[in-house]
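$ ./design --mode recover --in tokens.txt
reading tokens...
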């Protein structure tokens, strides 16, 4: 029975890791297509939704049907929408991103529960139940924490790229190009240095070319990123287009302001570094220094006391 249990466990583990590898490959297989997304959005607006969870249902994609069945569970629809919002803010906007995240979430929870169940073999039922409940809580919390960490990292990359990109956009606009052409040129120049912000600019331009209003495209950019600096940039571009003011000069001033804010953040980080290093120095470095400097002297004192207290 024990051999069969071990064999079953290895089979399940192999299947789980195979599923993880397949999901990862599917996640990175296709690129984001703003034009196709815009066409699907226009098509969906012409249809009447028949149910609250119908947005997850798709007749032509297996992952759409998978999300549809998951959304039928109580409270799963709101959880899917929240997870999709976090994925968008983390930079994962492919159609199958939500399905891959749900699969990885379920697999992680299953692995944690299986591992805890193996560790609790031979334990009392009460302790085993408590341990399984703790494992379930960890399995439910860790994926969301990881996703929130990815959101913070993506936002930090966008904020770091914004001053230089806005400055370059102002220079390109000063040459006489239109806004869409300038944004595409900036995206081409910045795609190897700041690929995240270059992809966001490309998405906005493709949405405008697909027939969407520029104000709506920039508002969607603000919703996707959730960054105040991009919100101010979008408001500046929309107002400049509305009132006919010089956008190149405004972007130059705004880029300088963003650069000053980044400098202040760096100075604040440097000022906090000393305080953050204080505790590791006290806990890890000072005891070692005391042992190295006082250890030989202490051993010498003990040796001399033994010699003085020995037989004469």
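writing sequence...
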């Amino acid at each position: 029975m024990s051999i069969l249990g071990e064999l079953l466990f290895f089979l399940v583990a192999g299947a789980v890791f195979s599923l993880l590898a397949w999901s990862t490959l599917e996640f990175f297989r296709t690129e984001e297509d703003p034009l196709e997304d815009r066409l699907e959005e226009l098509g969906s607006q012409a249809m009447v939704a028949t149910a609250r969870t119908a947005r997850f249902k798709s007749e032509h994609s297996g992952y759409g049907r998978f999300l549809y069945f998951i959304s039928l569970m109580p409270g799963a629809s709101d959880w899917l929408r929240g997870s999709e919002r976090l994925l968008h803010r983390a930079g994962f906007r492919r159609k199958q991103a939500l399905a891959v995240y749900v699969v990885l979430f379920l697999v992680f929870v299953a692995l944690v529960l299986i591992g805890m169940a193996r560790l609790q073999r031979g334990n009392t039922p009460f302790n085993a139940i408590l341990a399984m409940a703790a494992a379930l809580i960890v399995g439910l919390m860790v994926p969301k924490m990881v996703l929130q960490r990815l959101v913070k990292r993506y936002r930090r990359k966008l904020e770091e790229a914004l001053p230089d990109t806005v400055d370059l956009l102002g220079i390109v606009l000063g040459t006489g190009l239109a806004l869409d052409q300038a944004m595409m040129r900036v995206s081409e120049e910045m795609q190897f240095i700041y690929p995240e912000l270059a992809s966001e600019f490309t998405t906005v331009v493709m949405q405008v070319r697909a027939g969407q209003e520029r104000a709506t495209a920039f508002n969607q950019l603000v919703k996707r990123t959730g960054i105040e600096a991009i919100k101010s940039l979008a408001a500046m571009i929309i107002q400049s287009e509305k009132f006919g003011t010089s956008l190149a000069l405004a972007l130059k001033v705004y880029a300088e302001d963003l650069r000053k804010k980044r400098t202040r953040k760096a100075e604040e980080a440097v000022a906090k570094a000393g305080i953050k290093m204080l505790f590791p120095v006290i806990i890890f470095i000072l005891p070692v220094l005391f042992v190295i400097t006082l250890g030989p002297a202490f051993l010498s004192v003990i040796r001399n006391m033994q010699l003085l207290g020995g037989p004469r």
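exit 0
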